[in-house]
Write a sequence for this structure.
C-alpha cells in the first residue's frame, strides 16, 4: 500500500471527523509531501517506517490491518499507544499528522484562526551579497578574517572585525530571507528556515526536539526575539570559577548596552501584549509572583504572532537586518548558500577555509570556495561548531561535551472565554520569580499546526480540544539544566546525546506544575501538561499535589514531552586548557588564529535566553581580533 493511502488511513483515525472531506485529506497529503520532499533521512524514512508499523502491527493482535478497520476502531487502536515505546510512536505520528492537517487553510478557518498580518510584506531591502546557489565557477579569495555563520554570534563578530577595518568574508549555509520572503505557512517555513526541517532531535530519555535556524541570521530569524542579559550570579561564576577575567559587571554591561541598541531591545508594549499574556499576567499577580513584559529585539511590531516562521513586517530585528547589513556597509562580503567544509591548518595555525557552494535544496553544486586567511571565527552554533572543529582535525577531548539546552514543556490551558492567543506577541510575558532556582516561564503561543502537537490524546479527544483552539492559552515552562549532553559527528547530521538528569527532571516537573497553577489562577478550566502519565489537570489542587509530591512522586522521565531552544557549552571558554576548548579571548587552545564566537563558549547554562550574551561575547571577541 502506498504512503498516501496509509497516511489518509492514519489521518482519518487521528482526526475522526464525520465531515472530513476528500479535499481536506488531499490537501493534507500535499502538505505532508511538501514537508518530506527535502526532509532529512531520519524524518523521511522514520515516518514511512512508523506508518507501515502501525498499519501491519494489528495483524498480530487483531487479525487485520489498520486501514481495514472502521474509523472508530482505528482511532481507538491509535489512542492505545501508551508507555515508553508506544507513547513515542504516537508522539512522532502526531507531529506529522497535525502539521499536515492543521496547515490546511479550511481547517485553520474552522478553528477561528486568522492571519491578521497577511497583507504585510516586509519593509527592509537586503544589502548586496553573493548567492552561492548561482555560482558557476570555483572561487578563491584572500581575507583578513573569515566568519563561518551569520547568526547571533557570527553576525556580531563579523560586524566588529569589519568595523575595525579588516577585510571580512562571511560564509552562510542557508539562504538570505527577510519579510518580503516569508509566507507565514508552517510547512514552507520549516522547510526553508529550519535546519533538518525542524527535526533536529537529541537521543536519550526523553528524546528532545531542538529547533535550529538555517538561513542568514541563523536562529535569530526564527526565534521569538526574547532578549535578557546574563544574571549577575552567572557573570561572577564564569569569572571566578572558569577564569574569564575580562567578564566583569561593567564590561558585560558595556557590551550588552551596545548590542541592545543595535538590535533595538524594548519591553513588549501594551498595545500588542495580547490576551494570552494578559491572562497569564492576571494569574501571576493573583499568586503574588514576580513577572514582567519580556524585552524583545523588535521595532514597530504589529503582533503578527508569526515570529517563529520569520517576521513578515521585518519588525523583529534578527541579525539579517542589523549586524549583517552593517558589516557589509563596512566592507564585509557575505556568501549565502555556501557551506564551510573544513579548515586549512598548517603547523598549528589556521590558514583558511575550504567550502562548497550549494543549491536551494542543500546539494553541492560541484563548485568550491576557498578563503585564504590568518583568522577564522567559527559561529555555527553549539550543535554544529563542535562537529566542524572535529572534522577539521581538532582533538581536544572536551569538544562536543558540556551540552546544555534549556529543556522546555509547552503548557496549554482551556478557558470558557475566547483567548485568541494568535493576536499579539506570542512571547510577551515572563515569570522570573524562580530564576534563581533555574526555572523561567515565558509566553509561547503558536499557529494550529504547531500548537496541536502538544495537545494531548488522539482521535475524538484531541479533535474536540483543537476545536476550542480559540479558547486556549499557551506558555512555556523552561529550566536551566545542570545536567549535560554531548554532540558528535554523525553520518549525516550530528549525533546529539542528552538524558535529563534526576535533578533536572524534578525541576522540569516543578516548572510545569507552577505554570499550571498560574493558569488555574487566571481562570483556566483545564491545563495540558505534556506529561504522558498525567496529560490533563482539571483543578489547582492537582498542580499542588504535583508540587507536594516532589521529589518522591515523580513522573518517569520518558513521559515528559519536551523541546529545547538554547543549545550551548560544547566548546567552552575558560582559563584551564584541560577543561576549556577556548581561551578567554575566544581563540582555541589547539590552533592559533582560530576563534569560536557562539553559544558553544558558555561554561554553564545562562539561566535565561542567551541571545544578548551570545552577541555580547562575540562582539568582544571580534574587538580583540580587530586590535
Amino acid at each position: 500500500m502506498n504512503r498516501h493511502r496509509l497516511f489518509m488511513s492514519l489521518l482519518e483515525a487521528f482526526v475522526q471527523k464525520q465531515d472530513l472531506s476528500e479535499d481536506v485529506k488531499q490537501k493534507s497529503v500535499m502538505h505532508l509531501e511538501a514537508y518530506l520532499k527535502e526532509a532529512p533521512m531520519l524524518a523521511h524514512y522514520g515516518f514511512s517506517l512508523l506508518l507501515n508499523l502501525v498499519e501491519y502491527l494489528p495483524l498480530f493482535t487483531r487479525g487485520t490491518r489498520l486501514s481495514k478497520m472502521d474509523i472508530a476502531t482505528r482511532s481507538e487502536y491509535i489512542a492505545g499507544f501508551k508507555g515508553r515505546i508506544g507513547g513515542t510512536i504516537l508522539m512522532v505520528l502526531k507531529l506529522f499528522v497535525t502539521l499536515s492537517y492543521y496547515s490546511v487553510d479550511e481547517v485553520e478557518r474552522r478553528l477561528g484562526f486568522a492571519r491578521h498580518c497577511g497583507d504585510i510584506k516586509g519593509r527592509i531591502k537586503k544589502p548586496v551579497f553573493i548567492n552561492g546557489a548561482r555560482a558557476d565557477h570555483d572561487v578563491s579569495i584572500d581575507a583578513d578574517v573569515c566568519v563561518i555563520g551569520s547568526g547571533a554570534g557570527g553576525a556580531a563578530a563579523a560586524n566588529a572585525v569589519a568595523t575595525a577595518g579588516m577585510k571580512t568574508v562571511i560564509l552562510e549555509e542557508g539562504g538570505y530571507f527577510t519579510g518580503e520572503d516569508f509566507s507565514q505557512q508552517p510547512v514552507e517555513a520549516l522547510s526553508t528556515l529550519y535546519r533538518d526541517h525542524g527535526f533536529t532531535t537529541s537521543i536519550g530519555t526523553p528524546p528532545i526536539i531542538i529547533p535550529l535556524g538555517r538561513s542568514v541570521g541563523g536562529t535569530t530569524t526564527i526565534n521569538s526575539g526574547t532578549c535578557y542579559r546574563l544574571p549577575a550570579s552567572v557573570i561572577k561564576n564564569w569569572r571566578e570559577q572558569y577564569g574569564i577575567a575580562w567578564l566583569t559587571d561593567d564590561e558585560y554591561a558595556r557590551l550588552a548596552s551596545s548590542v541592545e541598541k543595535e538590535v533595538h531591545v524594548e519591553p513588549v508594549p501594551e498595545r500588542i501584549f495580547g490576551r494570552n499574556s494578559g491572562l497569564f499576567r492576571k494569574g501571576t499577580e493573583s499568586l503574588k509572583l514576580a513577572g514582567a513584559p519580556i524585552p524583545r529585539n523588535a521595532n514597530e511590531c504589529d503582533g503578527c504572532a508569526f515570529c517563529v516562521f520569520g517576521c513578515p513586517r521585518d519588525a523583529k530585528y534578527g541579525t539579517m537586518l542589523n549586524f549583517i547589513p552593517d558589516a557589509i556597509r563596512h566592507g564585509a562580503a557575505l556568501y549565502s548558500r555556501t557551506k564551510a567544509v573544513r579548515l586549512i591548518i598548517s603547523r598549528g595555525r589556521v590558514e583558511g577555509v575550504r567550502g562548497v557552494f550549494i543549491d536551494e535544496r542543500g546539494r553541492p553544486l560541484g563548485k568550491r570556495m576557498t578563503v585564504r586567511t590568518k583568522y577564522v571565527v567559527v559561529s555555527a552554533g553549539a550543535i554544529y561548531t563542535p562537529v566542524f572543529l572535529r572534522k577539521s582535525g581538532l582533538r581536544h577531548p572536551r569538544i562536543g561535551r558540556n551540552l546544555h539546552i534549556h529543556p522546555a514543556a509547552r503548557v496549554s490551558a482551556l478557558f470558557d472565554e475566547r483567548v485568541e492567543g494568535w493576536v499579539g506577541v506570542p512571547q510577551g510575558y515572563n515569570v522570573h520569580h524562580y530564576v534563581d532556582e533555574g526555572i523561567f516561564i515565558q509566553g509561547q503561543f503558536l499557529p494550529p499546526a504547531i500548537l496541536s502537537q502538544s495537545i494531548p490524546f488522539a482521535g475524538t479527544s484531541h479533535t474536540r480540544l483543537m476545536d476550542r483552539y480559540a479558547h486556549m492559552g499557551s506558555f512555556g515552562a523552561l529550566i536551566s539544566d545542570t545536567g549535560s549532553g554531548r554532540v558528535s559527528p554523525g553520518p549525516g547530521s550530528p549525533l546529539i546525546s542528552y538524558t535529563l538528569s534526576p535533578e533536572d527532571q524534578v525541576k522540569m516537573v516543578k516548572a510545569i506544575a507552577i505554570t499550571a497553577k498560574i493558569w488555574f489562577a487566571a481562570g483556566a478550566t483545564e491545563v495540558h501538561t505534556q506529561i504522558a502519565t498525567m496529560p490533563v489537570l482539571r483543578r489547582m489542587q492537582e498542580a499542588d499535589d504535583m508540587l507536594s509530591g516532589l521529589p518522591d512522586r515523580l513522573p518517569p522521565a520518558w513521559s515528559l514531552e519536551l523541546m529545547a531552544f538554547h543549545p550551548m557549552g560544547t566548546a567552552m571558554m575558560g582559563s584551564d586548557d584541560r577543561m576549556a576548548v577556548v581561551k578567554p579571548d575566544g581563540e582555541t587552545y589547539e590552533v592559533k588564529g582560530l576563534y569560536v564566537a557562539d553559544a558553544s563558549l558558555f561554561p554553564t547554562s545562562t539561566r535565561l535566553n542567551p541571545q544578548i550574551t551570545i552577541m555580547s561575547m562575540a562582539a568582544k571577541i571580534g574587538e580583540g581580533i580587530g586590535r
